[in-house]
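Journal club prep, shared notes

We agreed each person brings one worked example of a sequence with its structure written out as tokens. Mine is ABC transporter ATP-binding protein. I'm keeping it raw so we can talk through how to read the token line rather than staring at a rendered picture. Sequence first:
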Amino acid sequence: MLAIHSLSKSFDKGKNYALENVTFDLKEGDVCAIVGESGSGKTTLVRLIAGLERPDHGSIALDGNIIASLDKFVQPEKRKIGLVFQEYALFPHLTILENVLYGISKLKNKKIRAQEMLDLVGLSEMGKRYPHQLSGGQQQRVALARALAPEPTLLILDEPFSNLDAMLRMQLRNEIFDIIKKTGVTVLFVTHDTQDALSVADEILILQNGKVVQKDAAANLYVKPNTLYVASLFGNTIQINKNLQTAFRCPLKEDCCHAIRNEKIKVNPTAVDSDCEYITNATVIKKIVLGDSIQLLLKLETGEQLTVMTQDKNVADTITIGFNSKDILEFND
Ligand SMILES: Nc1ncnc2c1ncn2[C@@H]1O[C@H](COP(=O)(O)OP(=O)(O)OP(=O)(O)O)[C@@H](O)[C@H]1O
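Then the structure, token by token:
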């Protein structure tokens, strides 16, 4: 339903590309998260799809119709794309109901539709209030109601929860995606928070320096990341360089890059953990208590430093650490 082909965008006449040769498809009803570090091109990609920027190369098609290419450009308001941004972007001088009505002024049953949307987002009684009389979470639900009112083909959410504190963020994320899934609309969801992406998305598209490095089901990205960058986005990961291979006595293939997730490194593995094939000694340099667990900064005999987690509050100053070969991640980069 969304087909992006060879999409590129430069803001400095081709010296640097904010987005380069991006190709991917979305099926109807998919919820796809776009993840990547700051500056990787997430916002540029959704602005191109929404029609807020023009591509330098490539094309975007929605429901089989080209909406942007070198010789075609459909205006944003004609694209049937709903947008929800980080800043709620509600009109402060309009009531909540008027805000939702704004995008559907030409619709016959607009008042009924707007009220339905407020019911859907759980704000039935708030129609007469003004945005400043609502909490941040409620304002974001109004923004969602307004975006859904014209029945968009595609809904784009760009960092919609960034302005909210951690507790509210998780609650609102779950509420908003419960609402979205009821409507069956196809969603592109930009986030830098991999927990958000893993919690709600069917698929995740990873951008790095404007390029797609992986698009995969959420579960696969953790288990089978394509690159060290992807692995690191989904949890602390250590590259097993030559020094670490020496320390752990685990020679690995020369032409590949290898890594291990910090959480897979066991502290003082016992006979029960005999699955730890590679073991080395380490000196504890620093202990940081993080609630129930303790983060240890370690120095190995080869001079390498790394951090591991343990539940053992009485860990000695010299310890053993180890990991299993099945937990080694291997990449070609
Ligand atoms: N209007 C613009 N003019 C010039 N450069 C821009 C413009 N918009 C984006 N860029 C550049 O394009 C690159 C990608 O930016 P973009 O905002 O798409 O990244 P992002 O992944 O959304 O980052 P963030 O997570 O920080 O929002 C960056 O190098 C940015 O500086």
